[in-house]
Design a protein that fits this description.
The protein is α/β, with parallel strands linked by helices. The chain is built from eleven helices and twelve strands. Helix content is 41%, strand content 28%. Strands 1-4-5-6-7-10-11-12 form an eight-stranded parallel β-barrel, surrounded by seven helices. The protein is globular and about 45 Å long. The model is unreliable at 249-253 (pLDDT under 50).
């Protein structure tokens, strides 16, 4: 049963989607709160909110949009984009985020990331692993580090990280299908990782395929906004799996 996490990316207070992280490809879809309310009405429990202005400017910008969503919905929100300082992190939690995604900081200031992991707990910190050509990208995907994804994950999984949001940048916003092999490899190496697959989802079938190979969670955005995802079917599939698993666990052998 895969966790379904719709995404809301924000630029200048509006819900947008990019292609491969290119800000010049911005497509506006409306008001973030309206979209969040729509997702909640559809039965979603979780939401991924990205402050793209923050990611680009290296500090949190769209905090008011986050607060509006957490105030007016009951969604469990994870927030990322521009979280570079202790103050950024505290502001995100104060605005109602349950989890915060930290990616660039884990490259530029590893000790700070580790201090956040220790202070707030692995259940509240998501390691953002944005990858391009095998290397971790930072600062809104504007810069490529020289750190290999496998080395990045190895360091922080050993340090106690549990949640990893992995985005294959070359797939993001293309609707061409996720990087299945990449996610399979991560799960084979770290079977206890709560991996959130992101990038390339183009259909309901893509999400079902991720579920079939054991990926714990998926973020989707453009595919929904373009009418390519059947939320009702996905929820029905999850509910069926949940009831089946419950029956199996209750069987006396």
């Amino acid at each position: 049963m895969i966790e379904l996490i719709p995404a809301i990316d924000i630029i200048e207070g509006k819900c947008v989607r990019l292609t491969k992280g290119d800000y010049d490809t911005k497509k506006v879809y409306g008001n973030p709160l309206d979209m969040a309310l729509q997702f909640e009405d559809m039965g979603m429990k979780r939401l991924h909110v990205v402050d793209l202005d923050g990611a680009k400017s290296k500090h949190v910008v769209n905090i008011d949009a986050l607060k509006a969503i957490t105030t007016h919905t009951k969604l469990t929100v994870d927030f990322g984009g521009g979280v570079k300082t202790d103050d950024d992190l505290e502001r995100a939690f104060d605005a109602g985020a349950t989890l915060v995604t930290a990616g660039s900081i884990a490259i530029t200031d590893p000790e700070r990331y580790l201090s956040w992991l220790e202070k707030y707990g692995a259940q509240h910190i998501i390691l953002g692993a944005d990858v391009r050509n095998g290397l971790v990208s930072i600062n809104g995907w504007k810069e490529d580090s020289d750190v290999k994804l496998e080395d990045f994950l190895e360091r922080y999984m050993k340090a106690g990280t549990k949640n990893v949001l992995c985005t294959e940048i070359s797939k993001d916003g293309t609707l061409e299908g996720p990087a299945f092999k990449l996610y399979q490899n991560i799960m084979e190496r770290y079977p206890d990782c709560h991996l959130i697959a992101s990038g390339g989802v183009g259909s309901t079938e893509d999400i079902l395929a991720l579920d079939n190979i054991g990926i714990p969670a998926v973020v989707f955005g453009k595919a929904f906004y373009e009418g390519r995802i059947d939320i009702a079917k996905l929820l029905e599939t999850n509910n069926h799996k949940s009831s089946t698993e419950g029956e199996t666990k209750g069987t006396v052998c």
